[in-house]
Design goal:
By secondary structure, the protein is an alpha+beta fold. The strands form three sheets. The protein has a five-stranded antiparallel β-sheet, covered by helices on one side. It is elongated and about 75 Å long. Strand 1 and strand 2 form a beta hairpin. 45% of the residues lie in helices and 14% in strands. It starts with 19 loop residues before the first helix and ends in a 14-residue tail after the last helix. The protein has 13 helices and ten strands. The longest helix has 22 residues.
Length: 377
């Protein structure tokens, strides 16, 4: 027969927990293997960075036997266990060196724990808690795909705000060494970057996302307005506006996926083993996967071979003409906003963007050719 269950939601959570996500992970791991004891279920789950002995010790602190099963615990006991394990899991560091690179508003540090292991510590304002928690969770999804990256390790709050601890990647910035490498190696690293980006784009966007055509048209309209109001103009900047207006139809029915948000060679590190790694997911978002290529301008300026390899590695075959047309649209939009974005940072940044716009117009023959001349087939 059938049954009807009526659920009444609590107006506020019935318990208070230090780390809600950790609590959910514990409960999920406890019931994934119900025939196993709680200590075995948790130690086999991969959800925790603790040994079996440490987990058993945490359970004993509750006054329970290590042989207890997950279904025997109350919600309050799970909360206490979560708080105990959370305290045990936190990385304790003995040194903290500030990092001044990058454009984000995060405070960044290289920290070292007692064993000599280094990590990246990022601290953001507490008002960004939800955004940073979402960023951390999406990074875990990317890391689970096998993408070499600054893998997320720990998330929480501290006196300074909300923090995340990530894997420290020892190596060199890819943009500082790429031109010193043989041409075939530049291209090979580009292929790797393209393949990794395709893996990142395998994570779908929520179904609740606004249609891309509506969202991006609104964004372009705002950029055009701000460019027209900007006291500094590009030589032949109207070519960007004309191309945008003539190609808006390309946005119709575009898919949306998870995006790194700032994917270019400046956010890549070649580690000591020679492997390319992706860093800095601070601008992560959802959108058209092809729009993610708008930062390829920075790659092409450094190494056309790297940029070409990135495109070829992403498509693993023939590159569709529609990709090039859309990429030219996205680069036009991005270039328009670059000049007024640069003004608060001083004349040097303004000059950088003016030079970049001239280079982009040269690549695209003043936006008359959709395929840039840096692309090596």
């Amino acid at each position: 027969g059938s049954a009807v269950i009526r659920l009444t939601r609590h107006e506020k959570p019935p318990v208070e927990v230090a780390d809600e996500q950790l609590l959910f992970r514990l409960i999920r791991a406890s019931f994934n293997q119900r025939r196993k004891t709680l200590v075995n279920g948790l130690s086999n789950s991969g959800e925790l960075r603790l040994s079996k002995e440490q987990i058993a010790g945490a359970i004993e602190k509750l006054g329970l036997s290590p042989s207890v099963r997950g279904e025997a615990l109350t919600l309050e006991q799970f909360v206490r266990l979560s708080n105990i394990i959370g305290d045990m899991s936190r990385i304790t560091y003995i040194s903290k060196e500030p990092i001044d690179k990058g454009w984000s508003g995060d405070k960044k540090y290289c920290i070292t724990d007692k064993s000599g292991t280094q990590y990246l510590l990022r601290i953001s304002d507490m008002t960004r808690y939800e955004a940073k928690q979402s960023e951390f969770n999406r990074m875990k999804q990317v890391a689970a795909l096998g993408v070499p990256m600054c893998a997320p390790v720990e998330f929480g709050t501290c006196e300074e705000g909300v923090y995340s601890i990530q894997k420290w990647i020892e190596g060199v910035n890819a943009d500082s060494v790429i031109t010193t490498l043989p041409e075939n190696q530049q291209y090979a690293y580009g292929l790797d970057a393209g393949k990794m980006l395709r893996m990142i784009h395998s994570i779908p966007a929520p179904e609740t996302q606004e249609a891309w055509e509506i969202r991006f048209n609104r964004k372009m309209d705002l950029k055009i307005q701000k460019y027209r109001e900007c006291p500094i103009k590009y030589e032949n900047g109207q070519a960007f506006i004309d191309y945008i207006n003539e190609n808006r139809h390309l946005l119709k029915d575009r898919p949306q996926v998870y995006q790194h948000g700032d994917y270019h060679i400046g956010n890549m590190i070649i580690d000591t083993a020679g492997k390319l790694n992706i860093i800095d997911f601070d601008r992560n978002d959802y959108g058209d996967p092809w729009e993610e290529f708008n930062r390829i301008v920075w790659c092409a300026q450094k190494s056309p071979l790297f940029a070409s390899g990135m495109v070829k590695g992403y498509f693993e075959g023939e590159v569709p003409l529609d990709f090039w047309k859309l990429l030219a649209l996205y680069i036009s939009s991005n270039t328009l906003s670059s000049v007024y974005w640069a003004i608060p940072y001083g004349q040097q940044q303004v000059d950088t963007m003016l030079n970049q716009a001239r280079e982009v117009l040269s690549w695209y023959d003043n936006m008359r050719s959709p395929v840039p001349d840096w692309f090596v087939c």
